[in-house]
Design goal:
Distance between the termini: 4 Å
Structural class: alpha/beta
Order of helices and strands: EHEHHHHEHEHEEEEHHEHEHEH
Shape: globular
Radius of gyration: 20 Å
Strand order of the largest sheet: 5-6-4-1-9-10-11
């Protein structure tokens, strides 16, 4: 699958979505939600805020989170900073248990085969399961560049529950609406206590997290995230292999799907094959393949008695 390349280049790009963490297994305190499950959880945990939104917005959230967030943005935008801080506190809790997640297995396999130094990890997820899985294996995290030494790049293309503005601040009690943009640098914390303290005590700003709605708007340090999205598109364009796991094509997310459509890299998917085919057939000319049938076939073959002849691995 992975051809030889310059050992100093990050020519293997992984992109993870909510489906990757939802199916990762070995996660505490519970399985991370898919987008369609998120509102019912936030409504239960935060009944006075997420659960206290106007009833017509709550009903939309239950069937379509992105549409519900659009209504919040349009009608009660001043509530968004506190809602996003609460969402960050919820997402920062997730941890791999005993190196049992599929993220851990992937990291181990890449390291064992000498491929990890060629990998750029990227994710659309707000939680930090991937990062904590890397830390459990002794690797550092490079959020904003390709890293040095034992650091592994993890680029969070829609921001993260643990990323905050740097160089610009608004103290508790300050209110702002959707028309206000706070432009500054960004910094990340891997200590959940610091994340909770920042969200609940230190700032009125939302974390650097794109709103989960059409177009993924961002009002805190947007230039930094948009710059990373542009850099990611350049890495995808130059890659030899791109692997997308648990990501669904969404209208309006052109910053993700245009680079994937145009890259000449071999593009592998793990996800809903019907939805991905509906996107890839009219949009991609390069090689595209679903990995799950190959993985299932190999697992089946591994359980069979040895046969005469050989099976060639995918290139």
């Amino acid at each position: 699958m992975f051809k030889m390349a310059n050992p100093n280049s990050k020519d293997i790009v992984f992109l993870f979505g909510a489906g990757a963490s939802y199916g990762a297994g070995g996660v505490l305190p519970e399985q991370p939600p898919l987008g369609c499950q998120l509102y019912s959880i936030l409504e239960r945990i935060y009944p006075g805020s997420w659960g206290g939104l106007p009833v017509e917005i709550r009903e939309v959230f239950k069937s379509d989170f992105e549409h519900g967030m659009q209504l919040v943005h349009d009608r009660v935008g001043g509530a968004i900073p506190s809602l996003m801080r609460e969402m960050a506190v919820y997402f920062v809790q997730f941890r791999p248990h005993d190196r049992a997640t599929l993220y851990c297995r992937l990291i181990e396999d890449l390291h064992k085969n000498g491929l990890l130094e060629r990998v750029l990890f990227s994710t659309l997820n707000y939680e930090c399961l991937l990062e904590f899985s890397l830390l459990h294996h002794g690797h550092g995290i490079a959020y904003f560049d390709e890293g040095t030494g034992n650091q592994v790049p993890v680029w969070k293309l829609h921001g993260s529950c643990n990323i905050f503005s740097h160089g610009v601040q608004a103290g508790p009690g300050i209110a702002y609406g959707t028309g206000v943009v706070w432009e500054g640098g960004i910094e990340a914390f891997l200590d959940s206590n610091l994340v909770i303290q920042r969200c609940l005590v230190e700032t009125a700003l939302a974390p650097v997290m794109c709103l989960y709605m059409h177009g993924k708007p961002l009002s805190v340090s947007p230039a930094a995230i948009h710059g990373q999205q542009k850099a990611w598109a350049e890495r995808v364009d130059a890659a030899s292999v791109v692997v997308s796991i648990g990501v669904r094509p969404l209208t309006g997310d052109d910053h993700i799907w245009k680079p994937l459509a145009s890259t000449s890299a071999q593009l592998y998917f793990i996800g809903d094959s019907t939805v991905l085919d509906q996107w890839s057939k009219p949009n991609r000319t390069g090689a595209t393949e679903h990995l799950l049938p190959l993985i299932t076939k190999r697992r089946f073959q591994d359980t069979q008695p040895a046969q005469t002849g050989t099976v060639e691995a995918p290139r």
